[in-house]
Prior knowledge:
The chain has about 170 residues and is of the alpha+beta class. Helices cover about 25% and strands about 25% of the residues. The model has no long low-confidence stretch (mean pLDDT about 90).
Amino acid sequence: MRHLRDLVIAPLNTDHDRASFHCNVDALDNYIHKQAGQDIKRSISRVFVAEQPGNSKEVMGYYSLSTLSIELSQLPENLARKLPRHPIPAALIGRLAVSKSVQGYGIGKMLLIDAIKRTLSVSEQIAIYAMVVDAIDDNAKGFYEQYGFTCLNDSSARLFLSLKSFGNNPKYS
């Protein structure tokens, strides 16, 4: 495999070979195989893929991004009391997966950072307070927690990260 810095993260398109993607988590494989294109067409989410220049058909990893709002009661009390009394705007990483053939090379971290940077860029035009992710299992939860995500009050699988904390976390460099 080429060096990670050569990878490109681009919007999913019809040229990508989604059928060959396998991360060995059925829900994540099925999403990219069957649902991602429909979600894009319906403006439910945007899907971005990691690809190598010169081999832009192979999907090495992907993530989906959409919006949601967080009820104040879901946030930790120390944060909630500092915020206005209405739902807080957020971006949702609905899914993030890396192909089994390239797991362990840091592509997951690269995809996560790209999702956060993309959200930060949009947040200059429209308010977004935090990133939210639904961890599919304990391994995924551990992955996000190592980058500063914490559990929302009402769920052990839904985690969030204040965008303000992104620049202060050395794990993102």
